[in-house]
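Hello,

Following up on my earlier ticket. Below are the two sequence lines again, exactly as submitted.
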Amino acid sequence: MKGIYYVLLLYFFLMLPPVANLMESVMIIHMHMQMTLFVIIGFLLAPALQKRFPRFFEEWNPNGIPGILLFVIVIFYWTLPRSMDEALNLWYIELFKFISLPFLAGVPLWDSWKKITASLKNGLISLFTLLFILMGWLYIWSPNQLCNNYLMIDQITLGWGFLLTAVCMIIYLAYSYITDFAKTV
Amino acid sequence: MVNKKLLAYLLVAVFGIVLFYFGTDGFTAYTSEAARVNQLKEEKPLFPEVTLEDHAERVYPFSEFEGKYVFITFFYTMCGTVCPELEKNMKQVYEMLPEDVVEEDIQFLSISFDPERDTPEVLDTYREWLESDGETWRMARIPDQQELDELLDRFGVIVIPDEYGNFAHNSAFYLVDPEGRLVEVMDYQETREAAVTVMDRMEGGGEK
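Thanks for your patience. The regenerated structure is below:
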């Protein structure tokens, strides 16, 4: 269980103001790298938490659905253009980002993923594919600047990042469909 | 067991609603630009005392326009994207208002936030391009950077310089009342709506 200290170290390192400011200075790194890293920190902390509080997860998240819902809500919140702006302008929103992404998105997803059915998993990936296509479309082709703190070109870059991620998820869905199909034949 | 599961659903749902409610000011503002406009309309900030220098090299304080409504946009002449559209739309609003109103009751003012490059001569060229008369619609810069920053800050105009000498900035129509208070922030793409809002304001003499 020594690994947990490295995870915590990474967690605190990412929260250091100079590190956080640097990552937030580029929009696409802010959203697709910093935020993703915080969710991954949640994944890495989850096994230790499950071991420590096994009953909590069994009682509150028996079938994985509440955890998935919580994950979806938190991620949807952080895709609002406004949330990103406010994380830069207001310290308490920034703090909420540091706490919510690992503990209200990463940990519940880790705990839920093994409990939910394969079709729900694919449904979830499809939902995020749709969301990312929508966000990509919004950031690339919206006539107005959505975020006040970033340049237009940063927003367009982010839009393409969203679309690329959506394409990856579509490839994954197609791949899993084909391999499943091959197994049953 | 069952109860806790139900409670978990409930808690997550309540959390979601509360989060989105506060995150979007009660489902009204999904971008910080919308939130900014809502907040400005509520606060009605006072136009700070600044010194303007216009396209004809006239220098005067903003209080010159006291007693009149002032229709304002923020722009810079080197801008190739939004500003020409913003100023062209401002011209449309100008043309939609009745002539006597434009001459007596309202002043049109385009303020540059790039005082270094936008000298009176440059502003005058821009004025010519827009075919403004230079009286009822003036182009001006605020030579004192500190005064300019104070104004931009108070009116929530965010200007970010990029590495190519351009600026990223948010755009809107601003209406200041005869006492110098910001009373309307309008969508610069809806010119007809803006003209109607301005007329309503002036006829109502205050609240809509």
